[in-house]
Amino acid sequence: MGNILIVKNPATGKVIKEVKINSEEEIRQAIKIGHDSFEKWKKVSAHERSRLLTNWSRIIQEHKDEIAEIMTLENGKPLSESRGEVDYATSYIDWYAEEAKRIYGRTVPASSETKRIVVSKQPIGLVAAITPWNFPAAMMTRKAAPALAAGCPFIVKPAAETPLTTMKLIELAHEAGIPTDVIQYVNGSGSVVGKMFTSSEYIRKITFTGSTPIGKQLIKESAETIKHVTMELGGHAPLIIAEDADLDFAVAQTMITKFRNAGQTCVCANRIIVHENIAEAFSEKLAKEARNLKVGNGLDKDTQVGPIINEKGFEKIVAQINDAVKKGAEVLAGNRYNADKDQGYFFVYPTVLTNVKPDMVIMQEETFGPVAPIITFRTLEEAVEIANSTPYGLAAYFFTNNYKTGTYLHDHLDFGIIGWNDGAPSGAHIPFGGMKESGLGREGGIEGIEPYLETKYLSIGNL
Ligand code: SIN
After folding, report:
1. Could you give the 3-state DSSP secondary structure of residue 411?
2. Sign, CA torsion 247/249/252/254
3. How far apart are CA 361 and CA 325, in angstroms?
4. 131 Cβ below 6 A of ligand 1
5. How does pLDDT run across 327-338, given as a tens digit for each residue?
6. What are 176-194's pLDDT values in tens digits?
7. Rounded to 5 degrees, what are φ and ψ at 398?
8. I want to staple 149 with a disulfide (CB 3.0 to 4.6 A). Which of 100, 301, 362, 442 is the partner?
9. Distance in angstroms (rounded) separating the CA atoms of residues 373 and 371
10. Does 368 sit in the ligand 1 pocket, CB within 6 Å?
11. Residue with the nearest Cα to atom 8 of ligand 1?
């Protein structure tokens, strides 16, 4: 990596910018500065922290087009999605600007009349975040906003592929009046910075969005200093379509969850599990829609599906498709590519596969690409068994208008986020997070500020 990070446009392979990689000494200093700012920041009133966050959100919105363009250039997603992500990012800041004022304690009836019990909340201390390239704005604000609202200073290492969006957002945070020592970024390789974060006694919490193997590594390393962790890790979302579902609606919602961000989201539907009596009709409709999607450079205004972030991601998707086809899957759409290794761009056309079987790699490993494998089921028990059969438990979707079927699926699916007739359940107001190897803790909603707070209990005696 040297001491320069070369940020490239994944749609063209061209260099956008060179960014300085921070030295270990600079990272150590940034951590110390963040830690030293805690005494000051935690004393800023909740109302003032709220005001500063609101300022930040407003200033980001004033720069919406500029940020969206940076995001599309470094991530590749269509401009309309980048604009949507700027809104998604500020929705977290707005939500936590309000929650800052609602960090309540409580009193508990004591066991004797000579005592009083008071429970209060205090900020945990310096928070370090490691954020992903697939949502360079929203995954940062989803962590920074509750941390700052709670009274914690914040330091982030953005993904090496997409540092520019984060750098811009933090520049705007400073412009909004949030002190420069209270919110900072550092650039570097994940393994170096991650290790420095996890081993520092100044950092009290690590919050990470990324792959399950890296999450496990960070949890292990954080054990040394007993840090709090929030982990939003991999997913392999099932999407079940019951026999009674409204097919056109289910197809439209599947298109949203499957092809948003070229299928490069942790919550996108990766295993489409359709009742055998409607599988053919559903598959044909989905394939027709998928074939109509416009693939290209996110800066072109008609583009609906952008590039894959890099060669490694591309190779994984192609290998999964090839494995499925080799084992008998049929291609209804896609399995087409526009890739040039020398230039450094990789596009995968939206792909729909039928006749998919549980032993195919695509049914077991997270895809992170625009591929919709369709497998059939006969009974609901069978659908649940397929859905729950991986180590992941982030998001699941099902489509039915029968309340008994819906209630059964809700009760039996082991996932943190469930969309019932809803392919887009994300939002700042909801608790986002997974079960099993998809993570620990929740981000968003009233739950999302709790991980940045310590609970302190006071017992007053001799009254
Ligand atoms: C993710 O893919 O990590 C986040 C997606 C979302 O917030 O909807």
Report:
1. helix
2. negative
3. 11
4. no
5. 999 999 999 999
6. 999 999 999 999 999 999 9
7. -145, 155
8. 100
9. 6
10. no
11. 426
Structure tokens, 339? 């890739």
Q: What pLDDT was estimated at residue 200?
A: 98
Mean pLDDT, rounded, of the chain? 98
Kindly state the DSSP code that residue 443 receives in the 8-state scheme: B
How confident is the model at residue 446, as a pLDDT?
97
290 CB less than 6 Å from ligand 1? no
Residue 28 CB burial class (10 angstroms; 0-12, 13-18, ≥19): middle
pLDDT at residue 372 is higher than 80: yes
User: What number does the ligand 1 atom closest to the CA of 266 have?
Assistant: 2
| Separation CA 161–CA 260 (nearest Å) | 19
Q: Taking residues 57-75, what's their average pLDDT? A: 98
pLDDT digits 0-9 by tens, 227-237: 999 999 999 99
412-462 pLDDT per residue, tens: 999 999 999 999 999 999 999 999 999 999 999 999 999 999 999 999 999
**Strands, DSSP E only, in 14-133?**
15-20, 106-108, 116-123, 126-130
Catalytically annotated residues: 232, 266
Pick the CATH number of 237-436 from 3.40.50.2300, 3.40.309.10, 3.90.79.10, 3.40.50.740: 3.40.309.10
CATH code of the domain occupying 4-233+438-460: 3.40.605.10
Which of 339, 316, 330, 404 shows the shortest CA–CA distance to 373? 330
Q: Is the CB of 183 under 6 A from ligand 1?
A: no
pLDDT (0 to 100) of residue 1: 56
Contact between 418 and 425 (Cβ < 8 Å): yes
- Domain spans of the chain? 4-233+438-460, 237-436
CA 6 to each of CA 19, 64, 77, 382: distance values in angstroms, whole numbers, following the listed order:
6, 24, 19, 48
d(CA 33, CA 126): 10
Distinct helix (H) and strand (E) counts, the chain: 14, 22
Residues 69-88: what's their mean pLDDT? 98
Q: Distance between CA atoms of 224 and 34, rounded to whole angstroms?
A: 20
Q: Write out pLDDT tens, residues 94-121.
A: 999 999 999 999 999 999 999 999 999 9
Question: How many of the other CB atoms lie within 10 Å of CB of 382?
Answer: 14
| Cα separation of the two ends of the chain | 64
pLDDT, tens digit, for every residue of 245-276? 999 999 999 999 999 999 999 999 999 999 99
Residue 297 Cα to ligand 1 middle (Å): 22
Tokens of 40: 């000051």
Given its phi and psi angles, is residue 262 left (phi above 0), alpha (psi -120 to 50 degrees) or beta?
Answer: left
Name the residue among 438, 80, 144 with its Cα closest to residue 267.
438
Enter the pTM of the model. 0.97
